[in-house]
Specification:
The complex is a heterodimer of chains A (149) and B (205). By secondary structure, chain A is mainly beta. The relative contact order of chain A is 0.25. In chain A, strands 1, 2, 3, 4, 5, 6, 7, 8, 9 and 10 form a ten-stranded mixed sheet that branches. The termini of chain A are far apart. Chain B has 205 residues and is α+β, with helices and mostly antiparallel strands. In chain B, 39% of the residues lie in helices and 21% in strands. An eight-stranded mixed sheet of chain B has the order 1-10-9-4-5-6-2-3, with helices on both faces. Chain B has a two-stranded antiparallel sheet with strand order 7-8. Classes of the chains: A mainly beta (149), B alpha+beta (205). At the A-B interface, strand 4, strand 5 and strand 8 of A face helix 2, helix 3 and strand 8 of B.
Amino acid sequence: MMVRSLALALILSAGGAAYAADKPAVEAKNGWVRVLPGALPAGGYLTFENRSDRALSIVSAESPQYGDAMIHRSSTDGGMGRMEMVDSVPLPAHGSLAFAPGGYHVMLMQPKQTVKPGDTIAVTFTLSDGEKIPATLLARPANASGPKD
Amino acid sequence: MKPSIFRRALVVLLAAAAVASLAACQREAQPEWRLNDVSGHLPDLDFKLTDDNGKPVTGADYKGKVAVMYFGYTHCPDVCPLTLTQLHVILDRLGPAADNVRILFVSVDPARDTPAVMHAYVNAFDKRAVGLVGSQAAVEALAKRYRSAFTREPDRGDGNYEVSHSSAIYFFDANGKARLLATPSASQDDIVHDLHLLTSLETRS
């Protein structure tokens, strides 16, 4: 009984590893950045899809176009708007998670060059298992509501 | 006998109601607000600040316009831009009546928000937005006046910091009277609805 479940666990984990090698477990899509005037920090938004059967988490972000990038979450609990840095954003197995205005976002700071609407921003997210997820975010005007409007 | 007493009472009641509603009409329409009605519960629009063109302004400078006041700061990359974007979309939906509305974006970060920074910031969202700055004391007094609050969070170690702030949106009529209060999660339809009413009050007065 114990041997069988152990074997099963081994097969499952081997299967998971093979899956990860074939295709990225996590896909990033619909990325956009709200560009603010000057060198003000900008919020980046996108949707992550975890196609694997493992619960993962996003632990960090970086962009060659910005001096610094941090993962934040905004909240308006109790009528107070505040932001907090988060160390880890859970990505459920076979699930998706959106970074969206008013919630999770990647805060992009110290642009190395002026970013204009229409530019593309490369952001690499690191997962808890060390895997890197490349994402392309479209620079949008300050008053945009999403990647297209 | 009984029914007629009832009928007479009803007529009296109806007449009283009609007179009351007529009086209300003459005084001012009593619209059916969808946002929180704060008439009489918050003070009139009054402040001494500096606008994003560097000009000293007071609440009286916005008489004749419906004022939509929101506290925030420019280094706020998420919630403030979201609220200002929503207000921009709302004013566009409002159509020509939006010419009678001003968004007053009051900075709670006097250390970093200069009129020039505020000018570029508010205009990136909407041409009908005005950025207002003042001393720490002046902004604190204004926030207190409207039972709002803000707190500068600890420095992250690189000279950067966040400011937590009340997320309420205040609506004043064209006479500077506080009328409505909304949260950023209020539906755009409700805000458009109430701004239509608020701007039509303005044109009647």
